[in-house]
Amino acid sequence: MTEIPEHLLKRSRERRSSIGQGDDTAEASGAPATTPATTAPAAASPAAASAGGGPPARTVASPPSPAEAPKPDPVHVAAAKRRRKIPFWAMATLSLMPVWGFMYVRSITESTEVAHGPIGDGAEVYNSCASCHGASGDGGVGYAFSGGSVLDTFPNIEDQIRFVYYGTEGYNSEGVDIYGSPDRPGGVHITGDQGVMPAFGTQLHEEEIVAVVCHERYTIAGADPTSDEWAEEFEAWCSAESPIYEGLGTGELQLTTSEQEMLGEVPFNPIGQAPIPGSSG
To answer: Considering the entire predicted model, what is its pTM?
Structure first.
């Protein structure tokens, strides 16, 4: 058995005596016995730290929750962000591309030759005839003009102008049954058999009647103004320098003027005061 030194036993008795006295004092005063702190003191608030003169405590933000985290861009958006942008200096060049394209197309496109005089004017007047005779003169309610058909019916331009001027009603009132050539290839045209031709003498100016007839003969029917058959008629009635067309426009000539009332030396055959049967040439 080991012997404990006397001074150690004395020190142990003193320690137990002091602890017992502390417990008795705490119980007598009603205060709880103090225990060693096992937790770290709470961090001082920024206001307290500021009041104490020290620097404010830094607040560390907590990481965002999964619900608040930004969503990744879709594939096409990410690709667009990665794509190289058009340089600013190239924008001026690109803005001129439509103008360049327009000028290029104009340069390689053949310009449409615009007819002047009676034929050019007659193309516009013909819009009022297209509903019956077709936009291209292929026929409809009225007879066709294309393929030389109208030239077979009216070998002389005066006969066609006369029929347009007086119309079906005028020919019926005069008892004229055949308004075109009596020798027409494929058979004659009988007044009123193919619809009713309005009397345009009261609806159009006289030069407009000549213009639309010229358009029907030389543009739609295809008469050749340089041929021996049509050259004289074309120069007098349908050319850009036509003296008849000019005289009708100025009022110096009238379609119904008689031979004795003609002005100047214009080679003009009036259509007369009433419908007459068509001639064969």
So the answer is: 0.60
For 239, residues 6+ apart whose C-beta sits below 8 A from its C-beta are: 117, 118, 225
Determine which helix (DSSP H) or strand (DSSP E) holds 231, and give its type and residue range.
Answer: helix 231-233
Give the CA angle between residues 181, 143, 156 to the nearest 5°. Answer: 30
pLDDT given at position 146: 94
78-101 average pLDDT score: 70
The residue length of the chain stands at: 281
100: which 2 tokens?
């360049």
Condensed to tens digits (0 to 9), the pLDDT of residues 218-249 reads 999 999 999 999 999 999 999 999 999 999 99
pLDDT band at 97 (very low <50, low <70, confident <90, very high): confident
The CA-atom distances, in angstroms, between 134 and each of 26, 47, 138, 152, 240 are 126, 97, 5, 18, 26
Long-range contacts of 65-73 (CB under 8 A, 24+ apart): none
Structure confidence at residue 176 (pLDDT): 96
On the CB side of 243, how many CA atoms lie within 13 Å of its CA?
11
CA distance 92 to 168: 65
CA separation, residue 78 to residues 68, 75, 202 (Å):
20, 5, 75
Q: Does domain 118-261 have CATH number 3.30.1360?
A: no
Our measurement of the distance from residue 87's CA atom to the centroid of its chain's CA atoms, rounded to an integer in Å, reads: 30
**What contacts 24+ positions apart, CB below 8 Å, involve 244-252?**
244/210, 244/268, 245/117, 245/118, 245/207, 245/210, 245/211, 248/205, 248/206, 248/207, 248/210, 249/207
- First-to-last C-alpha distance (Å) of the chain: 168
Residue 265: which residues within 8 A CB-CB, separation 6 or more? none
